[in-house]
Amino acid sequence: MYWQNAIRVRRTSPYFRNRAQLIAFSFVLFSCGLNPQNADIELNETLPEAKITVYQEAIDQLGLMSSIYSDNSLKIMSKDILDNTGTSVATSAEIPRDITEMVKSTLNGIGGNIRYIPYEPEFMTNTANTGYSDYGDKILPQVILSGGITEFDRGLVTDNDGLSLSAEIKSQYGIEFDDQTKSSLSSVTLDFNLIDFKTFTGIPRIQAVNGIKLHKGTRSDNLGFTIKSVTFGAKGEIKKVQGRHAGVRLLVQISMIQIIGRYQKLPYWRLIPGVVKDNVVIDQVLADFYALTESQKIAKFQELLYLHGFGVTPNGQLDGATQGALQSFSQKQGLNSTNMDQTLYLALYEHIPLNAATRQRRKNLSMNAGSQVPTIQARQSQERIEVPPPRQEPVEAQAPKRDGSLKIATEKKQYAIGDTLKINFSVSDPMYVRIVVINSKGAISTLFPNAYQNDNFCKPGKNYSIPPSGAEFTLDISEPKGVDKIRAIGSSKPIPSDVMFFTKDGQFDDSKMSNYNIRSATDYVIQ
User: Fold this and answer.
1) pLDDT by residue (tens digit) across 206-243?
2) What are the tens digits of pLDDT across the range 91-109?
3) Exposure of 259 by Cβ count < 10 A (0-12 exposed, 13-18 middle, 19+ buried)?
4) Which residues have CB under 8 Å from 198's CB, separation 6+?
5) What residues have CB less than 8 Å from 286, skipping those under 6 apart?
6) Closest Cα to residue 346, out of 299, 281, 295?
C-alpha cells in the first residue's frame, strides 16, 4: 500500500503515544473492508446496587455510640432543606434543588437513640379526618433541623488539554482523531441549625457548616471515518465525574454526624478518620463535669469505668475496686496520674469501646438505676456494700398465701454500725421476686435483683441469700441508726421496678398494689 501524503500531527498534550493503538485499529478497519456503519457495539449491563457512601459506616456507628453514651433519646424533625442559592434552576440542576429526602434517610438511618419524626402535616390531617389516626399517640420532637445549600461556586478552576490528529490515504480514505480533556473544580456549602421545638429558639453552637470541593473531568474522543466522501461519525464521551449530587449527599451525611454528635455530646470525631476533636463537645462535657459534686464525680468515673469493662458499680464511694480500675486504665492510656481530674475524665469519656457488649453494659446501668440498686460493690479483698440503716423495732410479717408464698428473714434482729447483713428468703412456687430496703429516712434501695444477682426468677425447694455464699460483695450496716424495713413481693410474671408503693410508715400501699398479693416483710434495728 502506497502512502501518498504525509501524516499531519498537531499535538497539544502528551496523549499521542496513548492513541497509537486507536490509529492502528482504524487502518485495520480499512484493510479489512469493514463498513463502520455496520459496527455492533455491545452495551454494558449494570445491575441495581445499594447506594453506599464512604460515611455510611460512620452513620451506623453514630447510632451505636448514641446508645452507649446515654439513655436519652433524641427525637428530631426536619424542615424542608432546599437550595437557597437558586443556582439549581439556573444551572439545569447541576446541584439538587431539594435535599430534604437525603436528610431524612440519613437521620432515619442512624438508629440507636436517634428517632426521626417526619413532618407531614397534610398527611396527618387527612388521616385524622378519615378516622384512621388521631394525635393522641403521636410523638413530638425535641428539636427541629433547619438549613439548606447556602453556597455553590462552579468553575473555580478550569483546565483544557487535548490531542488532534488527521491522516489521508490516496485521497480516498481519511482518518481524523480528536482527544480533548477538560476538568473543573466547584464548591458546595451546606448550613444546618437545631431549633428547640418547645421554645422555637436556636440552640447555641449546635450547628454544622460544611463545604465540599467537587472535581469534574470530561474526556471526548471523536473518531471520524471518511470512505469515498461518505462520512460516519462515531462520537463517545468518557466521563470521570465525582457527581455534584453525590457530593451533596456526602456533605449531608457528615453534617448530620456533626450536628447530632454536638447535641448529644458524643465524641463523633472517632468515627471519621482525620477529623480533629470538636471543642464544642469538649466544652459541654467539661461543663457537666465541673458541675458535679465530689460524690457525683466519683459515681460518674465509676460509670465510665464500668462501660470500659471494669467490675465497678456507681456508688459515689472511692473504694479499692474503683482505685484499682483507675490505675489499670491510666496505665493502659499512658497517663502518669490517677487523679480524678479533667484529663483522666476526658480520656475515659472519649475512648469507651463501641461494640454490642458495651451497649449491653449501658442497658445494665440503666436497669439498675431505674431499679434503685443499692451500693453493691465488687471487691478485690474486703470491699463491702453499705446498706442504709433503720429506725423502729423489728417486726416480721408475711403476706397471706394466694398464688404462692414468699418468706424472708435476716440472720439477726439487731445490728451495730459496721456489722455485715445477710438476708435469706425462699418461695413456695416458681416466681419472680423483687426485694427493697427502706431506711430510717425513707430512702428506698433495691436489694434484689442486683448487679451480681440479676436473675430474679426463683424456684421452690431452694434457699436464697443476699449476698449468696462466696459472693464478691457484702452488705455493710452504716448510718443512720434506727429501723430498716425490708419489703419483698413475688409474681408469676416479671416485676417492673416501679410497682412497689408504700405508706408513710413503710407498709405496703394496698390501694396501689392490688395486683401483687404475694408479699413478705421483715424489719431489723441498727443501734
Assistant:
1) 888 887 776 554 444 443 433 333 333 333 333 333 46
2) 777 778 898 989 999 999 8
3) buried
4) 142
5) 342, 346
6) 281
